[in-house]
C-alpha cells in the first residue's frame, strides 16, 4: 500500500496538478503527477509482452468518461477519498444496508473493496495522489449492499438504482464460488435486470458489468453463477501480466471478454488504485495490490464508459457487440484453449473473445449505427427421458433441428446469446461435462466438471448460456452431449429429462456503421435515433458523416488549455494537450531545441520525427518508417516489423528460413516450404500454386487421374488409378524381399502395404494416413477426393476441406480466402484472425471502411 | 420452505393497484411499508415487526394473509442469499 497524499492543502486546490486534474492526461511518470500511474502496467504497455488495453489511444482521442455515470455495487465507497472526491456522484450512490443515502463503508478493515473498484474506474487524473482511473472524468458512485444480509430485494434495489442517471453498474460479487453452488438472481433481481435493459438510460438500457468468477481453486464453473450466466450482464474475466490464466479464474461459456488483473503475488503485478483510509491504517490511501477477478470488472466498466462517451446512443446490446468485435485474442494466445467459431472469431472458455481494447472500442463506437431489434426464438422443449450412462466417459447425445423461427417475427439469422435450458438428474452432478454444438460446427462447453459438486443431483431448468456462437446462423442441427467425465464412481445412471434452446439474435446483419453497413455497402440505417444523431455538431477525430450528440461538447472541454506554456519550466510542452511533461509520451517525439513534444504520424506508437515511425500502434506493423496493417508481399512479420523473405520467389513467408515459404510467386509451386518451377515425383501442381500429393501408387498425375505408376503398382482397368501389382501374398500381408515370405502389414484394417506399418490401401471405410488406417481423418488432415486417404492440411492450417480450402489456421496464421498466411495480403485487413477484404480500391486498411 | 434457507421478516409484495392500496394492505395486516423496491413499479417491501428477523421457517400465517388478499398479485418472503466479494 502507498501513501503519496501529503495532507489537505492539495485538496483545497493549492497543488497546481490538482487544479488541472479534471482535464490533464496523466502522461508524466515523474512520480510527481499521479505517482502510481507508472505502476498501472495494464495502461502503459507493461504486460510481459508489451501489450495493454489500449486505453491511452482512447484518451488521446479525447474520451475520458466525461458525462458517463458508473456505480459500483459492493460494500460502499469512501465518498471523501481525495482521488475520488472530484468525480464522486451522490446520485449514483446509496446505502441499502442502513437504508440511508450515505454509502460510506463501515470501517472494519475489510470494507475497502468498493472503494478500490471505484478508483479503477474514476480516480482523478493529474494530481499527486494515487493512479488514474480508466475513465478519469467519469462520475462515480457506490452502493453499500454487501455489508449486511443480502436478499432478492436488496439486489433488486441495487441493480435498479436511479436507472435514468446511472449508465453502468459494476459488480464484483456473486454466489459462493465454492465449486458446488448453482445460484443466481431471484425474481426481483431478475425483474430489475429486465427493467434496466428495457427502461434504463432513458430506454437505451443499463449496462451491467460482472466479474465472471473467483473459483479457480475450487474448480468452479461460472456457468453455475446465474449473474455471469445472464444475457443482461457483460461477464468479464481476468488475465495475468504475463498473459496467462490467473489462479482464481473460472472457465465457462458465458464469459464475454477479459481485462488484465493480477497473477501470482510475487511474479506478476496487481492493479494500482485508491484504498480506503480506515482508522487502522489512516495514511494508506493507495494500493498496488488490488487483485482477483474483482479487479477486472471495474476496468471493463471504465472502458465501457469511454465507449459510451464516444457514442452516448449505444444500447446495452450495442455495447456487447462492440466488446465481441473489438476484444483481442492475440495478447492471450499463449494460454491454451482457443477455438474458432463458425464466423471465424477466436474464443476461449477462459477469456471469452479476448482482451478488451479501449482504443478499438471507441473507434468502433463512434461509427456504430446500432443493432437491429433483438429477436428471441424458443425451440420446442424436448421432454423425453434419456439415460445418462453411469460408466466413466459414458455419454448421451441428443439433437434438435431448428429453423431459427424462419418466416416469423422472431426470425434469427445472426445469433447473439444462446441459452440451453436443461433439466436433468445425475449424482454427483459435478461429474458432468455438457457440450453444445451449433449447426456451424462450433462446440461450446456449457459445463465443466466440478469435483466438489457432490451434494446435489439436479439441474432444474438451468439456462446454460454460451456467447460462443455470436454471429453464427441459428438454423440447422444443434447437438447436446452430456458426458459422465468426472472421477467419482457412479452407482446408477442419470436422466436427461428435458431441454430447450432459447436463441437470441437478429434477422438483419447487426454490424451496421452509421451511414453504411460493414458487409452491405448499400445499407442505410433509418432509425429515429440515427436521424437525430446526424443532426448534431461535428467532433474531432470523427469523419464528418459520423455525427453524434454530445461529443463535440466533451471534446472541446478536453481540448480547452488548462496551462499556458510559460508555466512549463524544465519539462517538455505539449501544445495540443496544453500540458507539461518530463518525457514525451507514446505517440509524440521530442524537439530538444524547442523543448516541445510533437505528434507522431497517425498510427505511430513512437517516431523520430513527423514522418518517420519507429514503432506502431497495436495490430500494425512497421515497414521501413511507415505503419501498415500488414506486411507487403515478399515480407514476413517479426516483432511487429516487416522483414524481407529470404527467397525471391516467395510471395509470402512465415520466417527467415529458406523453407518457410507459404505462398509462391506466379510460375512457381510450393513444396515443403520452398518454391520450385516443377513439383517432385508423386505430386502435382494445384491451381492454388502448391504441390499436392497424387493418389496412392501414382508416380505422376493429372488432377486425381494417375498418368504413371510407381514400382510394384500397375494402372487399373480404367487407367485412372494405380493398383498394387498382384503378389503371392493375400490381403493384409506383404512380400518380405529378404525372407521371400509374406509378412503381416501390422497396421490394423490395412489391405495392402509395402512393409510393416507402411499401409498403402485400407479396408472399406478406412483411410490411409502415414502408413496407418484411420476411420476418419483427424484434425489437421483432410480426406482426398477419391476417399481413400487422409492428407495433411497445408502449413499453418489446422482444419481444411482440401489442399486448397483451409477452414481454420494455427494461432500464428491468418485465414484469407481459404489459405493460411502469416499475415494478411495487400487489400485485406486483420479481422480477429481472419483476413477480410478492404473496401473497393483500398490498398491497405485496418478495418472495414 | 427450504431447510437450508434463512427467512427474514421482510416481504416483497406486488400490488398492481398502486402505492395507496399497498399502504392500506400493510396497515391492515400489521406490516410496515418500507417503500417501493428500487425502480420496480408497484413492488413494495413490507416488514413485519412480529416476525423473527432470521428464522429457518417461513411464516405460514403471513403467507396465508397475503395469499388471500386479492390485491396482492405476488409476494416473496425474503430469504438470505450468500453473496461473496470477488
Quick synopsis:
With 849 residues, chain A is mostly beta strands. Chain B has helices at 19-29, 60-68; strands at residues 7-14, 32-37, 40-47, 74-79, 84-85. Chain B has a four-stranded antiparallel sheet.
Overall body shape of chain B: globular
Count of alpha/pi helices of chain A: 11
Radius of gyration of chain B: 13 Å
Q: Write down the oligomeric state.
A: heterodimer
Widest sheet, order of strands of chain A: 2-3-1-4-6-7-8
Kindly state the percentage of residues in helix of chain B: 10-25%
Helix content of chain A: 10-25%
Q: What summary fits the major beta sheet of chain B?
A: 4 strands, antiparallel
Pattern of helices and strands of chain B: EHEEHEE
Task: Briefly note the structural class of the backbone of chain A.
Answer: mainly beta
Query: How does the overall form of chain A come out from the CA principal axes?
Result: globular
CA-CA gap between termini of chain A: 47 Å
Mean of residue pLDDT of chain A? 85
The secondary-structure class of chain B comes to alpha+beta
Amino acid at each position: 500500500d502507498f501513501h503519496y497524499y501529503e495532507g489537505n492543502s492539495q485538496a483545497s486546490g493549492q497543488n497546481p496538478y490538482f487544479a488541472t486534474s479534471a482535464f490533464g492526461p496523466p502522461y508524466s511518470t515523474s512520480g510527481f503527477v499521479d505517482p502510481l500511474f507508472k505502476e498501472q502496467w495494464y495502461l502503459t504497455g507493461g504486460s510481459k509482452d508489451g501489450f495493454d488495453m489500449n486505453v491511452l489511444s482512447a484518451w488521446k482521442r479525447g474520451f475520458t468518461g466525461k458525462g458517463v455515470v458508473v456505480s459500483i455495487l459492493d460494500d460502499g465507497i469512501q465518498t471523501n477519498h481525495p482521488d475520488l472526491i472530484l468525480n464522486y456522484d451522490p446520485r449514483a450512490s446509496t446505502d441499502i444496508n442502513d437504508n440511508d443515502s450515505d454509502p460510506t463503508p463501515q470501517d472494519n478493515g475489510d470494507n475497502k473493496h468498493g472503494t478500490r473498484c471505484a478508483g479503477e474506474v474514476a480516480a482523478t487524473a493529474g494530481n499527486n495522489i494515487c493512479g488514474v482511473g480508466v475513465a478519469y472524468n467519469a462520475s462515480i458512485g457506490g452502493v453499500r449492499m454487501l455489508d449486511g444480509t443480502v436478499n432478492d430485494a436488496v439486489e433488486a434495489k441495487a441493480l435498479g438504482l436511479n436507472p435514468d442517471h446511472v449508465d453502468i453498474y459494476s459488480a464484483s460479487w456473486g454466489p459462493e464460488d465454492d465449486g458446488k453452488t448453482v445460484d443466481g438472481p431471484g425474481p426481483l433481481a431478475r425483474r430489475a435486470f429486465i427493467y434496466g435493459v428495457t427502461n434504463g438510460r432513458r430506454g437505451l438500457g443499463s449496462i451491467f458489468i460482472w466479474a465472471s468468477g473467483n473459483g479457480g481453486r475450487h474448480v468452479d464453473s461460472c456457468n453455475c453463477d446465474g449473474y455471469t450466466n445472464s444475457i443482461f450482464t457483460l461477464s468479464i474475466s481476468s488475465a495475468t501480466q504475463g498473459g496467462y490464466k490467473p489462479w482464481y479464474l473460472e472457465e465457462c461459456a458465458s464469459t464475454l471478454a477479459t481485462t488484465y488483473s493480477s497473477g501470482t503475488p510475487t511474479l506478476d503485478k496487481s492493479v494500482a488504485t485508491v484504498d480506503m483510509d480506515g482508522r487502522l491504517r489512516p495514511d494508506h490511501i493507495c494500493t498496488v495490490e488490488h487483485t482477483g477477478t474483482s479487479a477486472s470488472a471495474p476496468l471493463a466498466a471504465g472502458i465501457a464508459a469511454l465507449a459510451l462517451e464516444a457514442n452516448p446512443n449505444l444500447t446495452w446490446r450495442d455495447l456487447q457487440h462492440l466488446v465481441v468485435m473489438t476484444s483481442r485474442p492475440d495478447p492471450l494466445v499463449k494460454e491454451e484453449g482457443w477455438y474458432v467459431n463458425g464466423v471465424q472469431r477466436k474464443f476461449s472458455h477462459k477469456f471469452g473473445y479476448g482482451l478488451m481494447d479501449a482504443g478499438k472500442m471507441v473507434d468502433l463506437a463512434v461509427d456504430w449505427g446500432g443493432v437491429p431489434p433483438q429477436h428471441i426464438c424458443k425451440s420446442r422443449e424436448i421432454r423425453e427421458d434419456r439415460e445418462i450412462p453411469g460408466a466413466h466417459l459414458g455419454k448421451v447425445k441428443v439433437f434438435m433441428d431448428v429453423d431459427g423461427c424462419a418466416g416469423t417475427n422472431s426470425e434469427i439469422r445472426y445469433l447473439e446469446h444462446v441459452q440451453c435450458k436443461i433439466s436433468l438428474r445425475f449424482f454427483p452432478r459435478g461429474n458432468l461435462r455438457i457440450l453444445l454444438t451449433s449447426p456451424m460446427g462450433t462446440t461450446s462447453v456449457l459445463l465443466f466438471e466440478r469435483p466438489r459438486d457432490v451434494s446435489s443431483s439436479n439441474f432444474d431448468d438451468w439456462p446454460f448460456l454460451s456467447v460462443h456462437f455470436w454471429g453464427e446462423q441459428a438454423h440447422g442441427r444443434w447437438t447436446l452431449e452430456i458426458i459422465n467425465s468426472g472421477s467419482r464412481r457412479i452407482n446408477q445412471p442419470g436422466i436427461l429429462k428435458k431441454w430447450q434452446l432459447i436463441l437470441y439474435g437478429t434477422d438483419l446483419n447487426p454490424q451496421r456503421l452509421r451511414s453504411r453497413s460493414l458487409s452491405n455497402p448499400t445499407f442505410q440505417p433509418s432509425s429515429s435515433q440515427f436521424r437525430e444523431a446526424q443532426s448534431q455538431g461535428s467532433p474531432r477525430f470523427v469523419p464528418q458523416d459520423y455525427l453524434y450528440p454530445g461529443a463535440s461538447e466533451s471534446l472541446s472541454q478536453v481540448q480547452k488549455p488548462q496551462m499556458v506554456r510559460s508555466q512549463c519550466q524544465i519539462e517538455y510542452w505539449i501544445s495540443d494537450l496544453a500540458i507539461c511533461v518530463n518525457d514525451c509520451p507514446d505517440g509524440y517525439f521530442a524537439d530538444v531545441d524547442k523543448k516541445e513534444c510533437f505528434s507522431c504520424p497517425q498510427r505511430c506508437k513512437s517516431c523520430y520525427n513527423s514522418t518517420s515511425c519507429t514503432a506502431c500502434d497495436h495490430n500494425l506493423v512497421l515497414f521501413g518508417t511507415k505503419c501498415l496493417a500488414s506486411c507487403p508481399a515478399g515480407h514476413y512479420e517479426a516483432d511487429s516489423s516487416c522483414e524481407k523473405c529470404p527467397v525471391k520467389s516467395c510471395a509470402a513467408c512465415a520466417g527467415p528460413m529458406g523453407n518457410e515459404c507459404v505462398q509462391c510467386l506466379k510460375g512457381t509451386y510450393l513444396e515443403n516450404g520452398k518454391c520450385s518451377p516443377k513439383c517432385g515425383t508423386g505430386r502435382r501442381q494445384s491451381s492454388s500454386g502448391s504441390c499436392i500429393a497424387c493418389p496412392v501408387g501414382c508416380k505422376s498425375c493429372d488432377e486425381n487421374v494417375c498418368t504413371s505408376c510407381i514400382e510394384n503398382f500397375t494402372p487399373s482397368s480404367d487407367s485412372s488409378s494405380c493398383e498394387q501389382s498382384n503378389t503371392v501374398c493375400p490381403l493384409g500381408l506383404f512380400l518380405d524381399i529378404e525372407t521371400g515370405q509374406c509378412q503381416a502389414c501390422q497396421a490394423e484394417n490395412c489391405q495392402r502395404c509395402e512393409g510393416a506399418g507402411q499401409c498403402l490401401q485400407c479396408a472399406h471405410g478406412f483411410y490411409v494416413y502415414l502408413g496407418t488406417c484411420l476411420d476418419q481423418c483427424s484434425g489437421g488432415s483432410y480426406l482426398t477426393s477419391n476417399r481413400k486417404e487422409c492428407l495433411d492440411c497445408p502449413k499453418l492450417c489446422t482444419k481444411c476441406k482440401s489442399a486448397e480450402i483451409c477452414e481454420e489456421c494455427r494461432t500464428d496464421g491468418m485465414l484469407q480466402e481459404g489459405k493460411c498466411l502469416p499475415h494478411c495480403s495487400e487489400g485485406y485487413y486483420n479481422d480477429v484472425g481472419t483476413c477480410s477484404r478492404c473496401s473497393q480500391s483500398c490498398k491497405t486498411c485496418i478495418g472495414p471502411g | 420452505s427450504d431447510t437450508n434457507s434463512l427467512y427474514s421478516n421482510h416481504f416483497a409484495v406486488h400490488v398492481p393497484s398502486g402505492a395507496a392500496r399497498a399502504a392500506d394492505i400493510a396497515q391492515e395486516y400489521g406490516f410496515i411499508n418500507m417503500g417501493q423496491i428500487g425502480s420496480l413499479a408497484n413492488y413494495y417491501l413490507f416488514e413485519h415487526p412480529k416476525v423473527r428477523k432470521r428464522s429457518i421457517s417461513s411464516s405460514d400465517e403471513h403467507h396465508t394473509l397475503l395469499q388471500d388478499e386479492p390485491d396482492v398479485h405476488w409476494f416473496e418472503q425474503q430469504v438470505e442469499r450468500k453473496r461473496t466479494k470477488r
